[in-house]
Design goal:
- The chain has about 575 residues and is an alpha+beta fold.
- The chain has a domain of about 100 residues.
- The chain is built from 19 helices and 28 strands.
- The strands form nine sheets. Strands 9-23-24-28-25-26 form a six-stranded mixed sheet.
- Strand 1 and strand 2 form a beta hairpin.
- It is globular.
Length: about 575
């Protein structure tokens, strides 16, 4: 039924090639209410011949075998007599974003005449191979179910766009291009995935992450911009910040370097510096949507509330500034790794702009005018008011309130600690966020908060306590077992890291924060040539539900006296032993 789609400008096509073969297409799009569509082509084969086939137009049978329509509802039907005992109706489909011909080609290459049982077996083996990159041992089955369900979820998106012959529609133009020797990926929910999903891929599936970065650079060459929120080669422009910069640098810093670094740097600088960006409206000749980047540059790393008040296009001056700051910090790190010191210093300076919004009296990041005056009114719990729809964010923020952006400075936690008045003030404020229920586990801006206690010596136990609480409370095996929207695997990747015992609190930094593992043993199978070692094993001693706190850590038989671990240490291979207990260690 091609009409069951929430798209206004829709084109449908159905064609019965024979009594057992159907092909067709439909336009799709308008993700998050954004204009712009793409075309999905399909080919269907019925292995069990139907008694009758045909086409319904607006739910009325028509004597046609082929039909194209823009506004009428088209439905293909295949009628069967009720099968007898032991009989089954079998059908299979192939899809393409290029053509019906390619959809059939994909079908023939991947399924063809194989029996259902063979396809099922091949699918099971393929998934088992990918899921076996990490092996966990634990007597509690529900923990394994949670873990492998989350691992499965991480591999939903980004997904392969190209057909088996390498063809795919180019970014924005739809021109048919061909990729060779690798895959072209699509569905980049980068505002979400830069935080956990892509860092997870850099460790567990580096060969896939490499192709994902190369796909992003393809988009830059085809469209002129790195992706922001790309869907089937269309830029949707949803959310804020410049997350592509973060993903590219995080990938590079963690040893995946088989892409053109100079080309990537040019693309990153272009995204970071250019002040105009066309959205869907512009492509229809209606208007330009002006980015807030020119104002951000004008003021040296922040966007004052004046810009928003005068009609500027920005989703929360505080939130957008913090997102840009993190992206610029990543660009600075990438530039320095290439020996570009001038670029490094330029973007490092910009990355500190968040401090302009810190109110030392109230201890919040809040809206502020260029002349230094604070914007009023201020409600630290407001989650609506920034945009026209409910829960778009309190004034100044994106999908959250003041508490959700207070600690969102992952690239400069020491600087934030100084602003707050020292380590104890920082810890007290952060602990209040959890004790008072201000922490929001079902959205992205604050998901690294539980791991920030590790920045203060003697307070690491708080990270261990909060992370274990969240694993047990917010994730479970029944319906609704993921807090909020999984956001193309972001929340699932959070859970995977947390259950294994380490977490990438600052994307772009090649360090992880340690926490208490859930499993008796975790084995991560490493991948050559991106990793030097073969496996990294985490063993947990005294693993019990009541033993939440880390008593000691050793690496390859030697004491490890830190609550951070470099990515390079993990990928060299070895064994980490973490001993747990009931008592806090301060």
């Amino acid at each position: 039924d091609l009409s069951r789609i929430n798209t206004q400008d829709t084109l449908f096509y159905l064609h019965w090639l024979s009594e057992t073969e159907l092909e067709g297409m439909r336009t799709d799009g308008q993700f998050c209410g954004k204009p712009g569509t793409h075309i999905l082509y399909f080919y269907v084969r019925f292995y069990t011949p139907p008694a009758e086939t045909g086409i319904l137009v607006n739910n009325v049978k028509e004597n046609v075998r082929e039909k194209r329509s823009r506004h009428e509802k088209l439905t293909a039907f295949a009628l069967y007599q009720m099968p007898g005992s032991g009989q089954a109706i079998t059908m299979a489909a192939g899809i393409s974003y290029v053509s019906c011909r390619n959809a059939r080609m994909n079908f023939m290459r991947e399924i063809g005449g194989k029996p259902f049982e063979v396809v099922q077996h091949e699918c099971r083996e393929a998934w088992n191979q990918m899921l076996s990159r990490i092996e966990v041992e634990d007597p509690v089955d529900s923990n394994k179910v949670k873990f492998y369900t989350a691992l499965y979820h991480t591999m939903s998106h980004p997904n392969i766009l190209n057909d088996v012959n390498g063809e795919y529609p180019a970014m924005e133009t739809g021109r048919i291009m061909k990729v060779k020797g690798r895959n072209r990926f699509t569905v980049y929910s980068l505002w979400d995935t830069y935080r956990t999903l892509h860092p997870f891929f850099t460790l567990v599936y580096p060969e896939v992450q490499s192709q994902m970065v190369k796909s992003m650079l393809d988009m830059y060459h085809e469209y002129g911009w790195l992706p922001h929120w790309e869907l089937i080669s269309r830029e949707k422009g949803v959310m804020n910040g410049d997350p592509a910069l973060i993903v590219i640098n995080d990938t590079w810093q963690k040893g995946i370097r088989d892409f053109d670094a100079e080309d990537a740097l040019c693309a990153m600088i272009h995204n970071a510096r250019e002040t105009y960006r066309c959205d869907e409206a512009d492509r229809k000749g209606v208007e330009y949507i002006r980015k807030a980047k020119d104002v951000y540059w004008q003021y040296g790393g922040y966007i004052p509330q004046d810009y928003k008040d005068h009609g500027g296009d920005v989703w929360g001056v505080v939130a957008t500034t913090e997102e840009y700051n993190l992206a610029d910090w990543n660009l600075a790190q990438f530039a320095r790794s290439l020996g570009k010191e001038e670029v490094y210093h330029t973007y490092m300076n910009l990355s500190k702009g968040y401090a302009f919004f810190f109110d030392s009296s109230g201890k919040f990041m809040r809206r502020r005018y260029a002349n230094g005056r604070w914007a009023e009114p201020f409600d630290s719990f407001a989650r609506s008011g920034e945009m026209s729809w409910p829960y778009s964010g309190g004034p100044g923020y994106t999908e959250g309130h003041a508490w959700h952006y207070l600690f969102f400075v992952p690239h400069d936690i020491p600087g934030l600690i100084r602003l707050m008045g020292g380590e104890q003030a920082f810890v007290q404020r952060l602990q209040m966020c959890f004790d008072s229920g201000y922490y929001m586990p079902d959205n992205e801006p604050d998901i690294a908060y539980p791991f920030l206690f590790n920045y203060v010596k003697g307070e690491e136990w708080r990270t261990q306590q909060q992370v274990r609480k969240l694993i047990n409370k917010e994730f479970y095996t029944g319906p609704g077992g993921i807090p909020g929207n999984d956001d193309t695997g972001t929340m699932s990747a959070w859970l995977l890291f947390a259950m294994m015992g380490f977490y990438p609190d600052c994307p772009g930094s090649a360090f992880y924060q340690l926490c208490s593992p859930v499993f008796n043993k975790v084995t991560i199978h490493l991948t050559s040539p991106y990793h030097k070692g073969k496996t990294f094993v985490i063993r947990t001693r005294n693993n019990h539900q009541e033993n939440v706190y880390i008593q000691s850590v050793s690496l390859n038989g030697k004491p490890w006296n830190a609550f951070q671990i470099p990515h390079e240490v993990l990928t060299e291979g070895g064994e980490m032993v973490i001993t747990l207990g009931k008592e806090r260690v301060q």
